[in-house]
Design goal:
By secondary structure, this protein is an alpha+beta fold. The protein has one domain: Cytidine Deaminase, domain 2 (3-Layer(aba) Sandwich), CATH 3.40.140. It has four helices and ten strands, in the order βββαββββαβαβαβ. It has an eight-stranded mixed β-sheet with strand order 1-2-3-5-4-8-9-10. A hairpin with a 4-residue loop joins β1 and β2. The longest helix has 13 residues. The protein is globular, with a radius of gyration of 15 Å.
Length: 179
């Protein structure tokens, strides 16, 4: 996947034209709140949080909204990044446990009208792609046509002093874009 071209608009969202990156995608545009990019920069690029281990995978849930476009694709907004403690995590794996799912339920209660628009996790030094386990998480828990996987290589981001991200969406045939 080529590097994301992120542009800021006047409403404090970064607009990512996903159809520029994936020829076959059900998501046309992703609008990401600037506060989420600020949080990701603070947490993973500036490395100011001494409480997290940058050498293991970390994850979160993405809350926001979606709408259907005239072309039949979706536009989504990402307004909330719900960081969670994983039940299990390593350099190559993350598993959400009951505490993470409870935190998601509480976040949905605290943000009426918000919907689950996907999930987020880090790949510490592995690059920007979805592993077999990542694909399984998407197909099992985040399988609505408007849901995405947002991936960040935090080690490369730290080295390059900028976010190295990928957004993975569903294709018309139900497969997930990858690589």
């Amino acid at each position: 996947m080529k590097k994301l071209n992120i542009c800021n608009d006047q409403f404090n969202y970064h607009k990512i034209q996903l159809s520029e990156y994936w020829r076959d995608t059900l998501i046309e545009v992703v609008y990401v709140s600037t506060k989420i990019f600020d949080l990701l920069n603070e947490y993973y690029v500036n490395d100011s949080h001494a409480t997290h281990d940058p050498h293991i995978e970390h994850g979160a849930f993405l809350l926001g909204d979606y709408s259907r476009t005239e072309s039949g694709q979706y536009d989504i907004t990402i307004d909330h990044l719900i960081l969670v403690e994983a039940e299990e995590q390593s350099i190559t794996n993350i598993q959400f446990g009951s505490a993470a799912w409870l935190k998601l339920d509480n976040a949905l209660e605290d943000n009426p009208g918000s919907k689950i628009v996907g999930w987020f996790h880090t790949h510490p030094g592995h690059g920007i792609f979805l592993s077999r386990d990542d694909l399984n998480v998407s197909y099992t828990y985040f399988n609505k046509p408007y849901q995405i996987a947002l991936l960040l290589d935090n080690q490369i981001s730290l080295k390059n002093n900028q976010l190295e991200l990928g957004i993975f969406s569903f294709k018309e045939n139900g497969e997930i874009n990858n690589y």
